[in-house]
Amino acid sequence: MANGQEENAALWGKTSQSSLYLGSTAETAVDGLLTTFTHTNTETDPWWRVDLLKIYRVNRVIITNRPTFGSRINGAVIRIGNFLDIYNNAMCAVISSLADGATATFSCGGMEGRYVIVHIPGDQKILSLCEVGVYGYLAGNAAVYGATTQSSTFGDWVAERAIDSNRGLQQADTSCASTLNETNPWWRLDLRDVYRISKVVVTNKNDCCAERMNGAEIRIGNSLENNGNDNPICAVIPAIPAGESYSYSCGEMEGRYVNMIIPGNVKMLTLCEVEVYGQVPVFKRSFVKMQFNSRVDLTDPSVGENVLKQLESVLADRGFINVTLRWSQTPKQVIQKTHSRQAFQFGPESDLDGEAPDEEVASQLLQQDISEWNSREGFIASRFTLHTARQTTHDKDEIWPDSKKSRKRGLWIEVMANGQEENAALWGKTSQSSIYLSSTAETAVDGLLTTFTHTNTETDPWWRVDLLKIYRVNRVIITNRSTFGWMFNGTVIRIGNFLDIYNNAMCFEIPTLEDSTTATISCGGMEGRYVIVHIPGDEKLLSLCEVEVYGYLAGNVAVDGATTQSSTFGNWFAEKAIDSNRGLQLADTSCASTLNETNPWWRLDLRDVYRISKVVVTNRNDCCAERMNGVEIRIGNSLENNGNGNPKCAVIPAIPAGESYSYSCGEMEGRYMNMIIPGNVKMLTLCEVEVYGQVPVLKRSFVKMQFNSKVDLTDPSVRENVLKQLGSVLADKGFTNVTLRWSQAPKRVIQKVNADKGVLWIEVLANGQEENAALWGQTSQSSIYYVWNAEFAIDGLLTTWAHTNSETDPWWRVDLLKVYRVNRVIITNRPTLGSRINGAVIRIGNFRDIYNNTICAVISSLADGATATFSCGGMEGRYVIVHIPGDQKIVCLSEVEVYGYLAGNVAVNGATTQSSTFGNWVAEKAIDSNRGLQQVNTSCVSTLNETNPWWRLDLCDVYRISKVVVTNRKDCCAEQINGAEIRIGNSLENNGNDNPICAVIPAIPAGESYSYSCGEMEGRYVNMIIPGEMKILTLCEVEVYGQVPVLKRSFVKMQFNSRVDLTDPSVGENLLKQLGSVLADRGFTNVTLRWSQTPKQVIQKVNAGKGNAAVYGVPRQSSTFEGWFAGKAIDSNRGLQLADTSCSSTRHETNPWWRLDLRNVYRINKVVVTNRKDCCPERINGVEIRIGNSLENNGNDNPICAVIPAIPAGESYSYSCGEMEGRYVNMIIPGDMKILTLCEVEVYGRENAALYGRTSQSSIYSFEKSEHAVDGLLTTFTHTNSETDPWWRVDLLKVYRVNRVIITNRPAFGSRIKGAVIRIGNSLDIYNNTV
């Protein structure tokens, strides 16, 4: 291994190849030998693949060519991804040629994937590889993106080495960090953003000095006081054994900084690797700056809280509910100021607790000023009415005070230029090297020209703003103070990610700036979290009036997308345009190009709808720059005409060779970004395309429209005319660039008409939006006033509403019929008497009892006729309930909408493809959570008329699939699903259509959804195929339910013969002693035996379940003999043919051991061990099998399951471990000069959840209690009395995902079970649970 390099992940993977020539197997590419190599047969598209077993971010792939016939590698392509189908994975690099015996490194830029594939496209090809190395890190470790520092550094054991993805187990001095011997040594990681941290994994050094980790505190938080060492503690590390990695749960603690500190004198801190796992929290908060008049002491907490309450009340009156207000800092006079460029103010000097000023006057003044600002080019403001707390009006001439008096009065409002970047400095945290008098760092971002920062006279004075996130900074605007401006001379502006000034890049040096002058400095998109202004030199002082920072959050979203193009010239593939290589040196290895054709195009799928601010395009450098001329950049959500009909962002007249030009797209929304050159005989070449923007918070609009009409809207021409008129009206109101369409042809049955007013209601759905699940549900309410029943809340009419009587705790409920993950609930209030909704609570859950369900939101108030959206964040539940707690209350609701998706449907996270596509009926529409019942052509998939049409879903992981739900189209052609086979499996042979059949669909009625049970079939791919010629396959929705296979535990029951009365405790105990003695004679010592229940006449033997948990574990051993690695003992190959390729072995040593980490705690019922066949079977003699959770002494002190006296050569022996619990399984031979050899170790366990539950039944006949159904005996049974609706129940004590229920009938009178129904759910009421 190269010093300091990440570990080679390929060594832990599983290799395979397309074919095998002689004995040149796939494994030889990762055996570390330069004298062996892989070799396929001569074939079409030969390939080699390594399965890394987990998803990695791959930085680079290193290929070593064979020493002879090296030309066989020419043209090989390296791909990385998560698909077994080669061409579904993204390309990292192309190996044009590589000399015999040469080694080449290919940068893959952090591409994510589980599989690394090397293949050669074409016929009559051979693929031969000597060595393949894959270097990167596990995806999800946030530490690798951070910046590190430490209190001191020992030698070259620098801080960064603790996050270099190398655990330092081979050479600590090249991959571990260490401080000097000192007091309170510390190490800090800056994650560059605030994370919710779930766990921290720490690796100790392997060679010596493991005690240098003892007592380390893990601290997480956002403060840099005391270098971050005062942040809250996640955990204290008592000790970590040498070379081990321990995980510490931090329970979603929030923080930007992760510190490791050892308190005490003469301490040294050494870290070989720190991994941090968590997610960036999504903050839905607004940041508001407010100013108001007050002479009272706002530093008094009670006064401050009273102000917040009054303000919250005013906001609630204006419809701003569910708002939490707090002081971000203790109010001070100096923070309430006005800048003439960015804010205005109003209001007389007054007392908060006095009489109020004239609200009308204040509002008029404010509106007047807003109008003035609206008249300025490029600025907008919203009209609103101001309400203040009651105050007393003083002198009218003080309504618009001067800047000095403004410190005590006025409302501060920020008005932003339309479409302009925000001043990022306003959201940041400021600091400076020192403070002269009270001129603090914050005054440079307070918007006032009369205040300024000021340091002491010192060496290298500085001012800094922490933007809290990494920005691409376009420009910095600096305003000098009005006097003594010379203090600014020689200022340097730096941007970067380091707290050390000189580690950051320089944007500009300002020699001089006149008093009160403003200068704009272009920084050209420099990236950094910190903007620093400093003056180098001695006896300097720094004073700043205002600093503004403009730019945008760093992040090219193109790199995560998927590309395609109209045609491909040579190997100038589409994905090369997003490989982060601008191709300025070798265009042919990093640029995309089409053939010469009509209207050539290139398309990027961003995989989500983005608000796109700009697109940066790089032209090729070597020649042919004209191939970019006339390119149209188009952005949108449609795939009609391959996306080339989407709206235009820009047209590129020309880009000079090798240059990168940026095109502003003004926050256009779209998932697809196309580049097309209209015209004949054109060729499109792109060397790099970068896309900058953000995922929109509200991706789609949902519009309800209501209008009067007596005309026949079933007439298409009439409908189109209505849309044109409506579009014209919207355009007059400023709503341009709007596309209107009918989501379905109007029909009487779906468009309810109010008989009194002739009002027609039509719902217009945005393309691809979730359906309103409430429409499919069953509504009810606590009582009905007059005729206003519960259904009126989902009828789509604003002139009807649900209405209860005046009562205690009135409620309205919709039963969604299935469990949904609810994203949001939309409530529309009635147009009159809307105050009746005040105080309503929205709850979501699985219980009919209101208060057993979880609160989503509280509706403090809602204006008459108003609509409010309440985010429920994916809360799970079958019922959505709106209720008002209290006496003499009325629930009255005009409309309730519920948006989300079925819980447990794993299809929504998958990737789809199909054999062909009719129009824009693309494959992904079958998993868009829209069943297409209103407009099939926008939410259903369809193939062309062809032989054996098929559709495939890649679940991206192997699932145990319990059922598949298929929805047929509603409008016509329901027969286009007849005969479809549902196939599930892991093979992509014949495009996955040869996998096992779950079910055959004879027919599904139009618009219906049918469910097909698949009995826990395992597979990654779900295919739908109709065998036969001239067939079309149409699907409106496919839902897949199941779970990623969990390694199950085994439950072992023992059987023996006995005529004595085992219900006698003394007899039972004596039997256990005899059994223990026999086991001890067989080498099973340290065994505890007990009766789990009182024995009965016959204990029936139960067949143990299948499932070898070892194959998913992580093995390790005390030493390794040549290539006999620890992992070979769990490779599912018992090594009976070639022991040296499939067995593990240690060297000759004292107490050799082998350990398996199961990654979780198991109840282990048996361990199966296979001995080598060729020779040396004595190398397993005396092995102790130990199971437990401790890693003390490398796990070799855990309890013994069994001792292996001997296993004959090539044999497999099973050792019962009686449900011993443990995460680690160790094999150790005590003694000197021993070798431990293992050809296979299998670990079995499973768990019947009912055994740990509590049983009950509706009644007991004789002594046949409910417990008899889980006692394992075939001679006992439960029995109720003869009664109405008898039942038996087991409470599993926790919520399970139940895969299967196994029922054994009694040996006589078995007909009594006929008609029994099995239900599963969370309610004690039988019928509230699902069949």
Automatic annotation (TrEMBL):
The keyword Aminoacyl-tRNA synthetase does not apply. The keyword Disulfide bond applies. Residues 6-138, 139-283, 421-553, 554-698, 770-902, 903-1047, 1106-1252 form the Fucolectin tachylectin-4 pentraxin-1 domain. Pfam families: F5_F8_type_C_2. Keywords: Calcium, Disulfide bond, Lectin, Metal-binding. It comes from the Eukaryota. Homotrimer. Belongs to the fucolectin family. Acts as a defensive agent. Recognizes blood group fucosylated oligosaccharides including A, B, H and Lewis B-type antigens. Does not recognize Lewis A antigen and has low affinity for monovalent haptens. This is Fucolectin tachylectin-4 pentraxin-1 domain-containing protein. It comes from Cirrhinus molitorella.
